[in-house]
DNA sequence: CACAATTCTGTTGTGCACAATTTGATAGTA
DNA sequence: TACTATCAAATTGTGCACAACAGAATTGTG
């Protein structure tokens, strides 16, 4: 019962899914470590930056930016609201919408994590131009993967 | 209360974490779509390939390959066992260990998803050499991120 | 105006992920 | 032998993710 391995068979180590998977695990661990002292999870960190940069956002607009649906964002935002980082208010103009905005504490927290990108860049061992090129590749890849969707 | 944006501030769109996050979301959606008809989740697909390629594995060894701990793998493997894809047996030589191996059905299922890597490559819009280069970059990045860990 | 269709958010159920702890087995040492 | 330390897997608790659905508000059409 020896396992058969044709010469043209892709081993798991040769597949893009495995490379992406292990890289994400590694990034996740480093972000977890850097964000722990700030009381933020990785998704909360991204949400904090997105809201801070794009002002008050509806849940749907934040979901488009983060590629998450309401089933993920609603409980995540409630936890951030409970932590005092964001405020959620109904949009007067359209009562179906909920506007999410940073509180003063949220802005302070955002300022407190401003050195994280630099720390991540250092940990990655890549030069700024290598990072920029990787980012560019990932952006094109994301765009292609998303356009092919039904 | 206009948001202040210094010229040197990184916008979220310029950060590697955001690019990785959106790419992972996009990959996840495509894999979910391709694997749905086979009754596999993305982590289950990776586990299936890893076990099929590296023969019977302990939970710990599979965890090293997949960068997952027992808290994630135990229930995942139990679901795969319930689906008839893998068998779990205590290692006679060391009763602390559990050996995970593919069943005949698991091998059939693995053969059934053999075209997935090619489909993913096509969806990515990248050439084989571009994919290989991206994979190489990710592998080096993963190695660096993992070595810096305490 | 009435009413059907659409839009937006939230809830429920299932699966994936880790930290912390528990249970059981092995190895090492007095 | 007994005692400790270590190791492997499983369990528990919390958070993140989607699919499917529910409910309220808005929009479009007659």
What does this entry look like structurally?
Chains A, B: GO terms for molecular function: DNA binding; DNA-binding transcription factor activity. Chains A, B: It holds the Pfam family MarR_2. Chains A, B: It comes from Humibacillus xanthopallidus. Chains A, B: One of its GO terms (biological process) is response to stress. Two copies of one chain form a homodimer. The first copy, chain A, has 150 residues and is mainly alpha-helical. Chain A has two domains: 41-113, Winged helix-like DNA-binding domain superfamily/Winged helix DNA-binding domain (Arc Repressor Mutant, subunit A, Orthogonal Bundle), CATH 1.10.10.10; 115-150. Chain A has seven helices and three strands. Chain A has helices spanning 16-36, 42-53, 59-66, 70-82, 104-112, 116-124, 128-147; strands at residues 57-58, 86-90, 98-102. The first copy, chain A, has a three-stranded antiparallel β-sheet with strand order 1-3-2. In chain A, strand 2 and strand 3 (98-102) form a beta hairpin. Chains A and B meet through helix 1, helix 2, helix 6 and helix 7 of A and helix 1, helix 2, helix 6 and helix 7 of B. The first copy, chain A, binds a DNA duplex (30 and 30 nucleotides) through residues 25, 28-29, 32, 41-44, 58-60, 68-76, 79, 94-98.
């Amino acid at each position: 019962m020896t396992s058969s391995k044709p010469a043209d068979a892709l081993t798991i180590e040769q597949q893009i899914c495995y490379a992406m998977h292990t890289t994400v695990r590694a990034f996740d661990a480093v972000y977890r470590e850097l964000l722990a002292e700030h009381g933020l999870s990785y998704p909360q960190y991204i949400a904090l930056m997105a809201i801070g940069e794009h002002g008050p956002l509806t849940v749907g607009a934040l979901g488009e930016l983060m590629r998450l649906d309401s089933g993920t964002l609603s409980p995540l935002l409630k936890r951030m609201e409970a932590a005092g980082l964001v405020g959620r208010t109904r949009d007067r103009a359209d009562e179906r919408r909920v506007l999410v905005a940073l509180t003063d504490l949220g802005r302070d927290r955002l300022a407190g994590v401003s050195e994280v990108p630099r720390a991540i860049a250092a940990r990655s061992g890549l030069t700024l131009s290598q990072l920029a090129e990787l980012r560019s590749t990932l952006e094109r890849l994301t765009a292609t993967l998303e356009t092919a969707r039904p």
